Amino acid sequence: MISHDCIMEITAVKRIVKTHVQGSGRGTVKELVSESDYMLSIRGVLVGEEAHTFPEKEIKVLQDLYSKEGTVKIESELTRLLSINEICIEELKWIDMEGEPFAQGYQIKAYSDEPFELELKNKGQVF
Predict the structure, then answer these.
(1) Model-level pTM?
(2) What domains does the chain contain, in order, with CATH numbers?
(3) Chain segment 45-69, per-residue pLDDT in tens
(4) Would you say 113 and 123 are in contact if contact means Cβ atoms under 8 Å apart?
């Protein structure tokens, strides 16, 4: 666990194809193609467990989550309501906390991920 005190933004995006129809005046015909993955932005500040210590251990935990191959489990009321259980971390940004020598800011950019199964077919055989 990293932090209870962070700000999380979740963005939902639809993939829509817009087609201009000649002679129809202003506007386009829209066709919903699909819903994209949720985009998540998580920002927070890490502080050391003990007073007046730099959060080295906490930074290592977050860096290890970023470096992990595959997905990371996520839990919050909002992610539960949106059925987001796992995320794939794309970007981890370290933010300088000027004037705060015992704190380290961070920002995570991630996408929701859902497990799925692939069915491979080869000349009528399913593997």
Answers:
(1) 0.78
(2) 6-113 (2.40.30.200)
(3) 999 888 889 999 999 999 999 999 9
(4) no
Q: Which two tokens stand for residue 88?
A: 């794939």
Report d(CA 66, CA 126) in Å as an integer: 35
Contacts of 115 (CB under 8 A, 6+ apart): 86
Angle CA(7)–CA(113)–CA(93) in degrees, nearest 5?
40
DSSP the chain: ---SSEEEEEE--EEEEEE--TTS-S--EEEEEEEPPPEEEEEEEEE-SSTT---HHHHHHHHHHHH-SS-EE---HHHHHTT--EEEEEEEEEE--TT-TTEEEEEEEEEEE-------EETTEE-
Encoded tokens for 5: 């005190």
- Largest separation between any pair of C-alpha atoms in the chain: 70
